[in-house]
Amino acid sequence: MLRTEEMLLNVGPQHPSTHGVFRLVIKIDGEIIKEATPVIGYLHRGTEKLAENLQYTQIIPYTDRLDYLAAMTNNYVLCHAVETMMGLEVPDRAEYLRVIAMELGRVASHLVWWGTYLLDIGATSPFLYAFREREMIVNLLTELSGARLTFNYMRVGGVKWDAPEGWIAKVAEFVPY
Length: 177
What we know:
Order of helices and strands: EEEHHHHHEEH
Number of domains: 2
Distance between the termini: 57 Å
């Protein structure tokens, strides 16, 4: 019978699959994972402490930085929580703009994941295609919010401003693309 012994492995924080943002301490016995401990502190920004002395509306720019690839979603989560606590009802148009912005951000975020994964396995051309598509989305979000990466578009009760003229048509043109 084969004998195995337990071993601790560190995956990250500079492991190729994590891109420096995550560490996993794994206890294995042969090929069986006995225990896995995530270490997420590499992304910690101290936002909770910073937010303790701010008004709710002043926290929104910090939420952009929690995950800069999906900044709109983090903006939404804070605004929605505050709106729920305050019993605020967001106008339908603002809610629609929020959902469109979050979905575009989600797709852009996934394109970064997909592109960097492809690059990790040596597929350079598809990486470039993924980032080309992402750039189209980022341009749409920039036109909507006025910012390129940390959008700070959502507000408690709605959005910073309405979509610029022709923006919805550009999104509709991009979606089937």
